[in-house]
Specification:
This protein is an alpha/beta fold. It has helices at about 10-20, 60-70, 85-90, 95-115, 145-165, 190-195, 215-230, 245-260, 285, 295-310, 310-320, 320-335; strands spanning about 1-5, 25-30, 50-55, 75-80, 120-125, 170-175, 175-180, 200-205, 210-215, 235-240, 245, 265-270, 340.
Length: about 350
């Protein structure tokens, strides 16, 4: 199958491209705008693969998307392209709406015209909003509380509308917090690992008791491929790792792996609208025949080791535009923050 992967130079997208190419029956076209988190260094090992092609372009541009479909005779789409970081969405909400809603609409319309065999929308558990107790089910009402989550929810609703109105064979995946190699260092785990390597403070929002279900990127991509092959058209599938942890506990585990002191933790002023807990019910996906295989302890240890052994990858990133962003988000917070009480 000739598959278009959008955002394939990003974190999840690059791992998915590599996984799909392992199937000798697939040809993969990667369409990526290469904004700040898109990085072709993530795909150096497959850049010359005979069944892989890269196109530099924006999913919001209908002419670009139409040309890709025609030039490569696209048969299926996996949409990984998205603006994804909540902190950045607070700084630039309109940019998130453009990519996550308008870009999805452009892809859907071209997919409809091309009569693709499958359209898979990679979404997030954050569309359900904060979950006080229990687990979010696929049929639950959406209650996004950040511009990022709202833009992803908008994209999801567009996908559902194309299934209902045009019979587009689409599926939606909603993954929990994903971690692993090649993740842009604005995100929680790579930020804390790389800061700790340099003995820099780890800015932990609020009381550090926010809870997330952590999912290895290898498990996440395996689940996406499984749903791509076997998911029911019109279906929505939650993808969870079964590894719910408080942020403070994850920070402590990172420092333990690195042999760094807990005093590096800084409690800082919280961000607006911070969701307390995400948790998804994955029984529908389990019934489809998939379960996660990577334990959080093993996955986190391997991730920490990857960042330690690939300093050239992340140091280049953190020396550029990232510095201005980091100062804008965390500078004043760190000045006002409080140290972690090791005795507590």
């Amino acid at each position: 199958m000739r598959i278009l992967v959008t955002g394939g130079a990003g974190f999840i997208g690059s791992h998915l491209v590599r996984r799909l190419l392992a199937d000798k029956d697939h040809r993969v076209v990667n369409l990526d705008a290469l904004r700040y988190s898109g990085n072709l260094d993530n795909l150096t090992d497959v850049s010359n693969h005979p069944r892989y092609a890269f196109v530099h372009g924006d999913i919001c541009d209908p002419k670009t998307v139409e040309k890709v479909f025609k030039d490569h005779d696209i048969e299926a789409v996996i949409n990984c392209a998205a603006e994804t970081h909540v902190d950045r969405s607070i700084l630039d909400p309109s940019g998130f709406a453009r990519t996550d809603v308008v870009g999805t609409a452009v892809l859907l319309e071209q997919a409809r015209q091309a009569k693709v065999a499958r359209f898979l929308q990679v979404s997030t558990d954050e569309v359900y909003g904060s979950v006080k107790e229990g687990w979010s089910k696929e049929e639950d009402a959406l209650a996004p509380r950040s511009p990022y989550a709202a833009s992803k929810a908008g994209g999801d609703l567009l996908v559902q509308s194309y299934t209902t109105t045009f019979n587009l064979p689409a599926v939606i995946t909603r993954g929990s917090n994903t971690y692993g190699p090649n993740q842009y260092p604005e995100k929680f785990i790579p930020l804390f690992v790389t800061n700790a390597v340099d003995d820099q403070p780890l800015p932990l929002y609020g009381d550090g008791r926010y809870r997330r279900d952590w999912l290895s990127v290898f498990d996440h991509c395996a689940a996406i491929e499984h749903i791509f092959r076997r998911g029911e058209p019109g279906g929505i599938y939650n993808i969870g790792g079964g590894n719910e942890r408080e942020n403070l506990a994850v920070a402590e585990l990172i420092l333990k792996h690195l042999g760094k002191p807990m005093s590096l933790i800084r409690f800082v002023r919280d961000r607006p609208g911070h969701d307390r807990r995400y948790a998804v019910d994955c029984r529908r996906l389990h019934a489809l025949g998939w379960r996660p295989t990577v334990s959080f302890e093993d996955g986190l240890r391997a991730t920490v080791d990857w960042y330690r052994s690939h300093e050239s990858w992340w140091r280049k990133i953190k020396s550029g535009e990232f510095r201005a962003y980091y100062e804008q988000v965390y500078g004043q917070r760190l000045n006002e923050g409080s140290r972690f009480d090791v005795q507590s």
